[in-house]
Amino acid sequence: MSGIDNELFLEAEENAQEVEFIKNYLPQELKEKFSEDDIYYIIDVISEYYVENGIFDNDEEDEEEIEIDLQPVVDYIVEKAKKENIGEFDPDEVLLVVQADLDFYEDPEESEE
Question: Could you tell me which residues come within 8 angstroms of residue 69 by beta carbon, excluding any fewer than 6 positions away?
Answer without folding.
Answer: none
